Amino acid sequence: MKEKILIVEDQFVEADYLRLILVKAGYEVIGIARSVVKAQEIMKQTTPDLVLLDIFLKGKLTGIDLARQLKNENIAFVYLSANSNEEVLMAAKATQPSGFLVKPFREKDLLVTLEIAQYRHDHLQESALNKESTLQQQLTKIISEHKGWEQKLAEIGKAFQSHIPFDFILAGFNSIEDIGFLRIGYDQYQTIRIKELLTITGLTMADVINLSAATVIDNTPIWYNDDAFEKICKQPSLKKLIASTFQMRSHLSFPLHLPDGTFFHFSFYSRRPDTYHADHISLFRRLEQILIADISDRKEAVHNTIVKNTEITNIKAFEGIIGKSHLLLNVFDHIIQVAPADTSVLIMGETGTGKERIADCIHQLSPRQGQPFIKINCAALPASLIESELFGHEKGAFTGAIEKRTGKFEQADKGTIFLDEIGEMPLELQVKLLRVLQEKEIERLGSNTPIKVDVRIITATNRNLEKEVAEGRFRLDLYYRLNVFPIVLPALRERTEDIPALAYHFMNYYNRKTGKKITGLSDKILKNMMAYHWPGNIRELEHVIERSVLLTSGTTIEDALIPVSRKTETVVEEVRMKTIHENERDYIITVLKKCNGRIWGAGAAAEVLNIPPSTLKSKMKKLGIKKEYIA
C-alpha cells in the first residue's frame, strides 16, 4: 500500500517539484496546500501518513501551528524550511517533528528523510506501547505478590518512576495515615509517614491535621508546573508543606475513584519546574483499573498498617558516578530509558561535567556492551585530519598517506562511537556525518566504494547547538538527527549537595595512588567548596583534591587552593557582528512591537519605516517575521 503524503508548501514551483519526486518514488500525494486552512480541509477528506510541512505559509497560521495539530492526531511530519533563526528553531523543536530538511536539498536527501521519519514515528509509537505494556506487567506482578501493603506501594511508585518521574510520591486516602516515599538515590527511597514528617518539619500533630484540613482535595486528575504550582502553594496546606520541606516545584495529582465512592490519591511531586503534562494523566487512566481492585480489597488493611520506617534499596547501579541529587537522578532515569535502544543520544553540559562517563554508561547498559566503544574528540583534531580519522583513507589518498588506514567508524562497527565536542566539527564534515546517519555507510578518503557500518552514535557538546544553528555554524538537519534523545548534565554548582561525596571519593582515590592515609576534610574546607561556583565542574574539583592530598602531611585536609568564589561575576559573551539581514530583522521587529504589530494606517510600522505596507509584508515574509514573534 502506497504511503499517503500531504505537501504543505506555499511556493508553487517547490511544491510541484516535491510532488514529482514523491510520485516517481511510489508515494501517493493526497494534495498540495498553501495554507494551514487548506491543509485542514484536505485532512478532513483523507488522513495522511506523513506531512511535508513548510514553516512559513499563506495566511495567519504557520506550519508550527499545524504541527501542533498533527502531533495531537499522531501524524508524522517533516519540516521544510530555509529559515533557521533561533526563535523559529525553538518553536519548531517544541512540536517534536519526525525530521527536518533544509532547503535546498537533494532528491535522495528527501527520500531518505521520509523513510527515516516514518520509521522513527512508527518506532517511537511501538516503543511507547512496549514501555506501557512492560509497566502494566510490572504492576500486575506487584499486586499479585504476597507482600505488605507499604512495600507494595513503594514498588508501585518505583515502577512508575521512568514513566511519571517524581522526587516524592504520596499515596493514600488523604489522611494522616498516607504513606510518602522520598527519592534519596537512584534506586533508593525513604519512607515518610506522619512520624517522620513531624520529625523533619518540627511541627506538631495538630499542625499537620490543620494543614491537611485546609488542603483542597483534587477529585479529578490535574497537574501543576512551576508558576501554577507556586500559586496553589501560597496558602497554607499540606501541598505547601511538602513543597517547602522537600523543595518541590511541580505536582501531579491522580485520584482513583473506588467502587464505594471514596478516592485513593497518588500525588507525584518533582523538584523540576516543568515535569508533568497531559500524557502522564492519559497513561495513568489506562492503568488505573489494575490498581483500583487491589486498593479496594486492602482498604481496611491500609488503615491498620503498622508504621515502619523503611528504605527501599535495589542493587547498585552506575558505579563510579557519584551523587544522589535529584538532577543527577534524573540523568540516571534518562540513561535507563535510552540505553536499550539504538537511538542517537546528544549529551549536553559544561566542560568537566562527565559527559564521556555518561556515554560509557549508556554503552555498558546497552545490547552493544560487548562490542567496541570508540571515543573521539572532534576539538582535538585539526580540520584537515578529522575526516581521515573518522572515515579512514586509502593508500595514496593524500600526501603522507603511505598505507591504508581504518577509520573510527569502521573500528566501532557493531558497537558505539562517541563524538565528543560535536559542535567543533567543520561544516563540510557535518554533511558527511549526516549521510552516515541516513545511509549507514561511509567512504574512505581516496575511495568511491561505500562501506556499510552498524554503529550507534552518541555525541556530546558544551555549546548551545541551537544558537550554533541559528548563526550558521551547525547544520539544522544534522542537529535534528543527533538530538533524538537529549541528556542535559547539570553543572556542579547546580548540585552542591553532591560535593562532599565527590570530595571524599577523590580523596580516597588519591589516597590509594599516593599511599597516604588521609581520613577526612575539615568543615571549613567543605564549606568553602560548597560556596565556590566551580566553573571547571567535577574535573576542577578532582584537581583541587589531588593537589590537597599531595600537600597534606596530616590525616585531615585543613586547607585547599580554592579560588575566591566568583558567583557574582558577570559573564560577558563574546560579541558577534550581526549580518545585514539580522540587523534589518531586529529593527523591523522592534518597530512592529512599538506599533503593537500594526502594519497599515497612521502611525503604523510601514509609516514609521517609510516604506509601503506591501513592501513591509514582503520583507517580513523574507525575514521570517510572524505575529507570534512580535506579540
Question: What is the second-level CATH architecture of the largest domain?
Answer: 2-Layer Sandwich
Count of discrete alpha- or pi-helical segments spanning 4 or more residues = 25
Corresponding CATH superfamily of the largest domain:
GAF domain
Q: Mean pLDDT, nearest integer?
A: 85
CATH class of the largest domain: Alpha Beta
Question: Total domains, how many?
Answer: 5
Strand order of the largest sheet: 9-10-11-6-7-8-12
The number of E-state strands comes to: 23
Report Rg: 28 Å
Structural class: alpha/beta
Distance between the termini: 45 Å
The CATH topology of the largest domain: Beta-Lactamase
Largest beta-sheet details: 7 strands, antiparallel
Unreliable stretches (pLDDT < 50, length at least 5) are: 300-317, 566-576
Strand content: 15-25%
The rough form would be described as globular
Helical residues, percent: 40-55%
Description of the structure:
The protein is an alpha/beta fold and 631 residues long. The chain has five domains: 4-106, Response regulator (Rossmann fold), CATH 3.40.50; 145-297, GAF domain (Beta-Lactamase, 2-Layer Sandwich); 340-488, P-loop containing nucleotide triphosphate hydrolases (Rossmann fold); 492-557, Helicase, Ruva Protein, domain 3 (Orthogonal Bundle), CATH 1.10.8.60; 580-629, no CATH class. Helices cover 45% and strands 16% of the residues. The strands form six sheets. The chain has a seven-stranded antiparallel sheet, sandwiched between helices. Helix 5 runs antiparallel to helix 6 (149-160) and helix 20 crosses helix 22 (537-551). Mean pLDDT is 85; it is low at 300-317 and 566-576.
